[in-house]
Amino acid sequence: MTPRDRLMTAAQLKEPDQVPVTFLRSSYDATRIGLNVKEYIFDYKKKLSAQIKLHERFPDCAFVPGINPDFGIVAEPSGFGAEIIYYENEPPMNHTIINEVEQIDSLKVPDPHADGLLPNVLEAYKYLIENTPSQYQVDPSAIRGPMDLATAIRGVGPFLSDMYRNPEYVHKLMDITTQTEINFMKAMDEIAGGTEIIFMCDDIPGLISPKFFDEFALPYMKKIFDSFKEKIKFYHNCKGSMHILEPLVETGFQVFNFSFENDLTETKNRIGQKVCLMGNVEPIGIFRTAKPQQIEEICKRQIEIAALGGAYTLSVGAAVYGPDSSMQAMMNAAQKYGKYPISKK
Amino acid sequence: MRNTEKLILDLKDAFVNIDSTQVNQLLKQAIESGISPKIIIEKAIRQGADEVGKKYEACEYFLPELVMSGEMMKEAITFLKPKMQAEGITSSGKIIFGTVKGDLHDVGKNIVVSMLSVAGFDVTDLGVDVPPEKFISEVETKTPNILCMSSLLTHTMPELDNVIEILKKEGLREKVKVMIGGRPVTKDYADNIKADSYGKDAYEAVEEAKRLMTVK
Lengths: 345, 216
Hints:
The complex is a heterodimer. By secondary structure, chain A is of the alpha/beta class.
């Protein structure tokens, strides 16, 4: 099986030949080879080359999204006119645009063919589809979750206090960001003539209470996933989510890239029969700094806890990579300890 | 229970229940009843904020409640400041606070600013993405006791060191104590760049600020 086939098999709650190893793709594709991030974003040839290099270095890993336009987290905010800040070696960020909550009344859903960097993403996607060698999977960009996008343009603090002070505006803004993501995803679908996956990155819901999640996040996330029923749906949230595990699953995703802050055993027990778990090795203290042997041992333990019966892929519990030695250690663990059938210990 | 005691209790409860409208109404009533702003802050606002903090640690409250707690503290201090000045209540110390250049995060910083204000410090919040020259000019012109800087991104952490180095070059380093904080920042890092203090969270930041005021 290819790494992608393994991942898709696990995503369907089945046992592949071996536990997959999967990473959420990011601009670290660029920084690990010394490529400036802004250059990586706008030079499509260099972007493709950097992404292929990662596949060549780690042929047994799945990277998801696969080869993809990858403008980081700023594409959708730019569609609203947000000013973008570019860094040499880090993903770009954006300034907020909504200072007074009443500005939401005049906010419009961006046109993915005309506004901000969104047309650039579509252009990059077309380039990648036409120029990527056939052995590599091309996917649409990851999209932001509606709450992450809302906080990107309103500000995290103001948006969270709006939940108490201006709940009607929270709903208005969530309606707009939800439609933004649906339109963006559909525009990418049009370019490709249909896509296999949708990948949503959405941390903020992990920071709010179950009551606020049910009111302000769940219906909007569900609307996005319901709009793309035929796709395999991935969801990334690297904040602790033990308090909202079951409501999260109700939104409709099939693969959960979850936080290192989550308890793996409890997460598997509570939702591991309903969704494929992707994670959750600690990204900094362990994955970036521990010795390969220690990482292998930790991955072995992860497999023992979560891989029985399938529906699991090894990964880190955050949107980062590690040094090559750490990524190799994770793959070694999958090869040594992750061949199916896996017996119960 | 006396009326004033009940009023203070009701105000604290409103704070803990994150009812900002009720908090603002009861603040006015408390002042009109002649209760000292110092008592209001210590018995209602600070104790209310402490209880919110405990509920957050117990996973009953989450980040929206902490943000609201910070905002209600800020609103209370703004409302009470003229009364405090009229009563001759002096500040515990002067603090300049900002998130460093290139970093737009402010949620944690805003909560710390509010906690320091409630603890009696006079805090000037420079906001986010603050260039080093702005920190330096504020230290020069406002002569604060403490300069607080936060960095939430690993790649903006070097700005903390950069500001300290510029303070040295400008002959200002001995005139101000420097406290740093933010998620990736550690005590080891603070020691390495010769900051005077490190605050792991809002509560520790307040205790450290008080300690720095006693250090020559």
